[in-house]
Design goal:
Elements: H1 3-20, H2 39-58, H3 61-92, H4 97-108, H5 122-150, H6 175-183, H7 198-204
Amino acid sequence: MDLVSLVNEYDCLHTILDNHAPIKSREITLRPKAPWYTNEINDKKRIRRQLERKWLKTRTNADWNRYKQQCYAVNKLIDSSKSAYYTDLINNGSSDQKTLFKTVSNLLHTNTIIRYPSSPDPMSLANSFSDFFTQKIVKIRGDIDDELLSKNIENPIPDADSCPYEFHTFRVLSCALMYYVIYVIKVETIISCNVISNWYIKLHIDKEQETHDYIW
């Protein structure tokens, strides 16, 4: 046979195969194998996939129940395998603080990967962050101004002299009330508001009882 006949037969065979068994593309996600993953879990998951395909084909309640039971069995097996693995890891690493804290960090997912936007150099990345937040503040202020203009509000913040209330008198506290404030109420709750040091007041409150009044 000449070359042309062989090429024609190959093309004919290729066409027949494409019609009856076309090439299918499939996306496969590669994941690192978990240390707690066992062959038993793999076998249980294979059975689960078989039962799922059978239920999708028949759509009967019996196949659905078998599929659900297998899902429960797989999840329970995974949980027990994880629990046993990390329990042994923590118990074995209890004497090594570094290993113990590393295990806890992995369990709590504290070592998250920081992903920054693409940038040619760190300086450009820093400037892009600065520009973003600067423009964001400008946009917020512009939106507030537009909202005020749409509602015909000229000056939303009143002037300092427009407040109708004033403080004219202050009540003088008695020594008994001061004693209650200092000794009954926790010092931490008033320490930031007290002009006079609390330890000084505690030291002299009895001595100054007859000679001083307090404005708190």
